UniProtKB/TrEMBL annotation, chain A:
The keyword Membrane is assigned to this record: yes
Protein topology in the membrane: Multi-pass membrane protein
Name listed for the protein in its UniProt record: Inner membrane protein, LrgB family protein
Key words of the record: Membrane, Transmembrane, Transmembrane helix
Main location: membrane
Keyword Cell wall biogenesis/degradation assigned: no
Annotated Gene Ontology cellular component terms: membrane
Subcellular location(s) of the protein: Membrane
Entry's transmembrane regions: 12-29, 41-62, 68-88, 100-125, 156-179, 213-236
Any coiled-coil regions, as ranges: none
From TrEMBL, chain B:
Gene Ontology terms: cellular component: plasma membrane
Position of the signal peptide: none
Protein name listed in UniProt: LrgA family protein
Subcellular location(s) per record: Cell membrane
Transmembrane segments: 44-62, 74-91, 103-126
Classification of source organism: Bacteria, Pseudomonadati, Pseudomonadota, Alphaproteobacteria, Hyphomicrobiales
Membrane topology: Multi-pass membrane protein
Pfam family, one: LrgA
Organism: Nitratireductor indicus C115
Amino acid sequence: MIASSLSWGNPLFQGFFWSAATIGFYLTAKRLYRRWPYWWLMPLAVTPAALIMIVLFLHASYGDYMRGAGWLITLLGPATVAFAVPIYEKRALIRRQWPVLLIGMVAGSATAILSGWGLATLLGLDGTLRLSLLPRSISTPFALEVSQDIGGVPDLTAVFVVMTGVLGAILGEFMLSFLPIRSALARGALLGVGAHGAGTAKAHQIGREEGSIAGLVMVMVGLLNVLAAPFLAYILN
Amino acid sequence: MTTRAFSLRFRRSVHNRRLVQIALLILFWLLGEAVVRLTGLPLPGGIVGMILVLLLLASHRLSLFSLKRGAEWFLAEMLLFFVPAVLAVVDHEELLGLLGLKILLVILGGTIAVMGVTALTVDLCYRWRERDDRVEPLLG
């Protein structure tokens, strides 16, 4: 008992424990999902759920967990760089279809902001909370920038962005199965604009073309929103 | 060994090694971060790194095969890198009650709307363009 509590207090051990638990659950969830592809077995839903239970069970805090496994988030940086490869491979398609994608991104972003504002107002949410919800559909680094610009709370926005990604990757599959969509272009745009990085990872599972379009659109829609943020801030205030 | 033979050997070893390519991608990301720090660009370092790699690929200074296997690994495992961010919910107890339910509804409804509008807009525009492309040669 004493030995185990001693080793538990050791930051090195804790770091190893949380990293190993995260990677272990993720790999297990991936195998399960490959075998039984039900939406509720999606690794992005199962892995955090299991980890949250362990954190609560051990009376650990988010800070404890992040000190151990936070370095994994850092890898989103090089993962973003990796998007250069599929985008470059599909450059002919993108060069041909960029006006279509641009119209889709503008329509999608306008919908994200209007629906966020409208639904929040309808449910009685207001103030900084409502503002923090507006940039939820774009990927985290852009969303934090926009949230700050329009007067939201970047910390809250970060949580909403992740919620949108997780729910969006799951919802995206349903949407794709019943919307009358024929082009890979629209399938990729749906996931890239609707669920940023998580949606893009999902798109890569659906197909190469969908994945590269989602990756491009995710980056472009983020840039578009950062550029539009001062204008949006002007309208809101 | 001549420099040419050496550079060929070096290239071949990079093309076959995923781990080397992963390191190369991390290097480009760090380069992007450094550029952001130095210039104060309002962009994430990863995006700057990506633009850098795209420029190198487009100008044929970098071969696609020096990065392809590493990039495929990053993209396939990307969901893992999102997992720790979800745990932030633990620190926001206020999100667990009615307020959380309301926020969940906003996000669910909003995301369905965004996905529907985006996909239908893109699909519609795409079909118009394809049809116009087919009609044009007949008219011209």
